[in-house]
Every structure is written in C-alpha cells, then in structure tokens.
Design brief:
The chain has about 140 residues and is of the alpha+beta class. The chain is built from four helices and four strands, in the order H-H-E-E-E-H-E-H. Strands 1-2-3-4 form a four-stranded mixed beta sheet. The radius of gyration is 18 Å and the shape is globular. The structure holds magnesium ion (MG).
Length: about 140
C-alpha cells in the first residue's frame, strides 16, 4: 500500500487568522467579543450595546460591560472596529474623555479597573489576555 502524501500547506495558521480578521464584519466581530466577555465571566445582564443609535449622542463606544470577580470590579468601554475601520471624530472625543477618567480611577483604586479601548479582530489574543488577567491595569 502506497503512503498518501498530503500537499505541503501553502497557508500558515497565522496567515489564515489574518485573512479571517481582515474579512470580518463589525457585526460578526461584535458577536465574537460578546462571546469572549461571557467566557471571561462578564454576566450577560451587564453587557450593553445600543441597538438603535438614532437620536443618541454620536460616538459613544459600542459595548459597555461590567464584571465583579475576585475582589476586582471591571468596567469595559470599547469601540469595535473592522480590521481596517477608522475611528470617527466623535468616537475619538468619547474615547479620549473616557481614557482620562480611566487613568484617574485605575491610578487611585486597586479594586476597580476601567478598560477603554478600540478592539479589532486581530486583537483577539491581546483581549483574551487582558480579560483573563484579574490584576491587569491600563
Ligand atoms: Mg464601532
């Protein structure tokens, strides 16, 4: 019996992962992030997304999530973007304002951490590390 040779892979897992990230819509990416938040102990009841933004202030981050675990309360405010999506001016204003508050809170309190960030599909590994690490501070 002759051994069957499999062709050498032409695409690495890393390249495949980059291609998947590049082609992901923001809606699909958002579902991934919500799943990641749930896996990392954020209760579904405290994960918020504005479904219909008509009439709302422009630029507020896409997701807000809260978790109380291991003596640390975490507040996440993230703008989600496609891999090559650009921030709008209003989003930059909100993120800057929230980052200012986060820096003060994170600097003052060891039992509260505030995460203000822009998350893109290629950031998945970094996000998972960040959410798993109970003591991480921005
Ligand atoms: Mg967005």
């Amino acid at each position: 019996m002759r051994a069957v040779r499999t062709p050498a892979p032409t695409v690495t897992l890393e390249e495949y992962d980059r291609q998947v990230a590049r082609g992901m819509s923001e809606a699909v990416w958002q579902n991934h992030v919500i799943t990641l938040l749930l896996w990392c102990g954020f209760p579904r009841d405290t994960i918020y997304h504005t479904r219909n933004s008509i009439g709302s202030q422009k630029g507020f981050p896409d997701l807000v999530a809260i978790r109380h675990r291991a003596g640390v309360s975490t507040l996440v405010l993230v703008e989600l973007k496609r891999q090559n999506g650009k921030l709008k001016k209003e989003q930059e204003v909100w993120l800057a304002a929230l980052r200012s508050i986060a820096a003060v809170v994170n600097g003052m309190c060891s039992t509260v951490r505030v995460v203000v960030d822009v998350w893109r599909p290629a950031d998945r590994g970094r996000i998972l590390e960040l959410l798993r690490n109970e003591t991480w501070k921005e």
